[in-house]
Design goal:
Length: 366
Amino acid sequence: MNMGWRKNRWAYAAVGGFVVVAAALGYWLSPRTPTPPAPTMSPVELSIVQSVGADFNGPLEELLRPFVEQHPEVRLSVRYDAHAWEGSDGATRGPHLALRVSNGSATPGGVPLFASDYVVLAYNRELVPEAPKTWRDIIAHGYTLKEKGTVPYGIVLAEEMHSLLPFFGDLFQAGGPGDTTREAFALLSDLRFKYGLTPGACLSECVVQVFKEGRAPFAVIGEWRLPELRSALGGKLGLTAIPALPGSGARVRSAQRVYALFRAGEAPKRELEAADALLRFVEKESASRLMATLGKAALQPVAASASAEELALAAASVDAVEVPEARVRAAEAALAPIWEQFATGRLSAEGAARSLVAAVSTPVQN
């Protein structure tokens, strides 16, 4: 009886084991409905249009690269549009952000990024180790180097209206040109006719070329030409704000344009949130990278630890004034024919000043 039970026990165990193995194999080998993958969120497409210039897409993308790295769900595209006005892309492409001229308080809601179109004083550190403080310094250094035969010119400035406007900053004031206009013409007359420090009929390309070649220690240059000078001169390039007029101490004020980033159009919630996050990033985190990536100085106060170039450009942009484009064009139109006669010696400094006062005889309105 015991022997039969033992034999049957082993038979039962063998059969049971076979059943377990067969059931396991059947489970694993039987066709099953695959587990669906976890749902993934579609990427957020953000488009930026910028009106600075066709070669500005890459630098702007580089400025915003940390934001994209922090938000891998965001895909960002940048393109140039000379007329990048608010809403120009429409709502179908999602929220686009427009980097464009802010027009001051007339267009609230943007995040100011940088100023452009203002004018600075460049100096060659190999010829002049330290930035000049006054026009007397500029004339003294330039005249000495010219007399020694080291350079043919003491200073170069572009005889183009926007580059000359800083000397006639009172064109933007309510009362129009006055005594400082006479002083500005007198200074420019001395530079050209009394000291022989400036070349005649030298436009922007001429100024850049003469200064790059070391043929003048100083140059009055628009900030938009600085990338070319940085590339050519490296550490030899020094920058500072244009000194005040020597007699009255009146500030030499550029007409500048402030560029701001605006959110334009309507779009789904996720895209709006991403656009607002990008605006916050620009406002709080991008200022420290503006000079390195865009070649522009931040509008916010510059830290004492900033580079000498950033401090100089910040000082120059503080002295600049943002005025409506129509006023800039009107000032240029009034100055152009008078400057042509003055630069060729047909008008004295006093005569040119009187002509400009007569040309702008009524207060300039905003």
